[in-house]
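Here is one such tokenized protein:
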Amino acid sequence: MMYNFRKIMVPVIVVLYYVIIGYAPFLLKGMLSYIIPALFWVSVLSLVLGITGLSSFLSQVNDSVVYSSLISAFLYLTVAFYGGMIHGFGLSPYSRSLIGMLINTVFVLSIAIGREFSRGFILKTFKSKYIFLTFILTTLLYTITEKPFQYYLNLNLFDFAVLIKFLGSVFLPLFSRNVFLSILVILSGPLASLAYLLPIELFYWWSPILPSLPWGFNTFLGVVLPILSLVITFSVTSPSLLKRVGMYQLGVSIKGIRHDLSQLKSLTTFFSLAILTVWLSTGLLGIYPNVVYSGSMQPTFDVGDLIIAVKVPADRIAIDDILLFMTPHGFTAHRVVDIRISDKTRIFITKGDANNAPDIEPVHYVNVKGKVVLTFPKIGWFSIYMKSLLALMFSLFYSNFIALTGFIASISLASYLVYNYSNKKVRRWGGWR
């Protein structure tokens, strides 16, 4: 019983810390934002080493995997540097004083080492029976917890454009990196993942200048490079090691992709299209798709239609054009009924085709995303249904957090007792099995 409790202690503590900090953001104000996370991850590291010992992790180390991790980190920094040469560099926002750099270094090292050793503990403890499930859940856990809990609460993920941008610029890069880190930990322990992670993290915290990359380039950097790094890692990993850790089929598949030019082209095409879709969906290329949520433009387009707007200069917008523009309540698409000049700036008076009067607020060009050029009827209903479902789930979770936590804990305890009873592992206690 105690052994099983010790096994689940680390992931439970990580989740509880993340949730508690999320509901008590005052704990991360000022210097506390450095002290509390550092102390927490140092405590987790001490717990992990106290349970398993450092030698159990050192015995996992594979020199080839560690060297490939360093090469992958160098590749990442090289691409970021050349991206900076194209898009420019900016001054680092982090402290350049000796004391400030020392505090930042301790902060980065404590969090990185604590996270990777706890990741290694979870994967090492549970992978023997449930390797795929453990891998996915662990990767998701360490992906989500890279951003503060409050960050997700402040996002309007029910807005289609915000959701797509979040997935492309935040979630996919973080998830891809954590997939790669988890595989490194399985192959060679936390020292391999640290060999990849620390050079990148320390560069961003130490360098006086940093690449000023648009988020679209960061999407490419965060999604494609971990995939290439995975190819490099498996290319230097022996089949015997892959078999021992249960990843032989994945390693063979990736090596096959590496040697098969047609498959490599397919893989490259897939990721290129995925990134292009993200860029298009968020207006990075001057094209803005948007789902219609109201009937103010009936019969021109209806609720559930997908409209495509293209960025155009202000002097190319004429009366009767339909504009997609930003308002305090989100995106709106209405028709231009009048154009006025104020301080040499064009201001547009808009009106919905189904409305009786023009909009109260005029539209300034700075808020115009583009002119609507295409309409695809009804295909946006999927987005509307998903938005409603997510809103319902979030509302239930947020308003009933304590009740849901108790329910999940009760179900987990009951499942544990039933499982152990069925396997005759629950000893007699007080006359009850």
